[in-house]
Amino acid sequence: MVSPTQRDVRDEVGVLDGAAAASGGLDRAAAILDAFDATHRELTLASLVRRCGLPRSTTHRTADRMLRLGWLDKPADRYRIGQRLFELSGLVPIRHELREAVLPFLHDLHAAVKVAVQLGVLHGAEVLVVEKITGHRPMPMLSQVGGTIPAYCSALGRAILAWSPAEAVDVALSGPLPARTPRTLTGPDAVRRELAAIPDRGWAVEREEGNIGVSCVAAPIFGPLGEVVAALSVTGPSAAVRSERAGPPVQLAAAAASRAYSARR
Questions:
Q1: Which whole-number Å values give the CA distances from 107 to 68, 228, 238, in the listed order?
Q2: Which residues pair with residue 117 across a beta bridge?
Q3: Do 153 and 175 form a contact (C-beta atoms < 8 A)?
Q4: Quick one: pLDDT at residue 93?
Q5: Quick count: other Cβ atoms within 10 Å of Cβ 96?
Q6: Which residues 6+ apart lie within 8 Å of 50 measured at CB?
Q7: CB count, 10 Å around CB of 16?
Q8: Fewer CB near the last or first residue (10 Å), C or N of the chain?
Q9: Residue range 81-130, pLDDT digits in tens
Q10: 145-178 b/e (C-beta count within 10 Å ≥ 16 → b)
């Protein structure tokens, strides 16, 4: 006969085992989701196994469960992110609140400058692209919505970092700062000097540091307490994006977006 104490211990162990199993399942699902990015939107099972690092049988079993949940889709022989995750992404505050508040001003800015416009937020040492409008001009070098770009050498990142606490700047500049082009600023001191010049100017500039022939101008978006929350930018051929001409409209759009976002908050 099992005593109450033994039963309590057994039940507690069962709960712990169940929690551990659930945690392990989530870790495996996360590894599979992390296998997808802007350049790997669809993956065969072999490619998924290679990129997620899980055993083939585990990958297949977990992916099959994710298909039933709608987290993945598999119209043929390739896996891709499922519709359910797309639906849930619209509920994320940064997409729902920030994007909805700023989107009209992105459209106005795009109509005025006739080049690509982007909205981004700081995520550690990178900028997460929340929205992008390119119109009919193809810009394949730009990150997709949901993709990331380095903060240290992007106008979006610099526009945010210039008004960020010192701790955030330290994080963004703590790792390697590789040269993406011969023009890239790769020294922390050089980047800090560039950041120090941005507040007086009102906007950040990146001239061919990410891609030769492409330049970017960005300005910060502030929240209701005066904290920097994001940045918007214009990006295009260097001949078309000059800071002295693009800076003022970008700054005006960011200021209007700040007021709209703060009003919602």
A1: 38, 21, 21
A2: 133, 234
A3: no
A4: 65
A5: 12
A6: none
A7: 10
A8: N
A9: 988 887 776 666 666 688 889 999 999 999 999 999 999 999 899 998 98
A10: bebbbbbbbbbbbbbbbbbbeeebbebbbeeebe
pLDDT band at 9 (very low <50, low <70, confident <90, very high): very low
How far is Cα of residue 96 from the mean position of the Cα atoms in its chain?
15
From CA 231, how far away is CA 55, in angstroms rounded?
41
pLDDT at residue number 14: 46
- Length of the chain equals 265
Long-range contacts of 180-187, Cβ-Cβ distance < 8 Å, separation of 24 or more? 180/150, 180/153, 180/209, 180/210, 180/211, 181/208, 181/209, 181/210, 181/211, 181/212, 183/207, 183/208, 183/209, 183/212, 184/153, 184/209, 184/210, 185/152, 185/153, 185/209
Q: Which residues of 104-123 are buried (b: 16+ CB within 10 A; e: fewer)?
A: ebbebbbeebebbbbbbbbe
> Token digits for 176?
């390697």
The residues facing 217 across adjacent strands are: 205, 234
Tokens of 261: 């976002």
Q: Which two tokens stand for residue 228?
A: 């920097």
**Amino acid of residue 128:** L
Per DSSP, the three-state class of 161 is helix
Residue 15 — pLDDT band, cuts 50, 70, 90? very low
Place of tokens 């214009």: 234
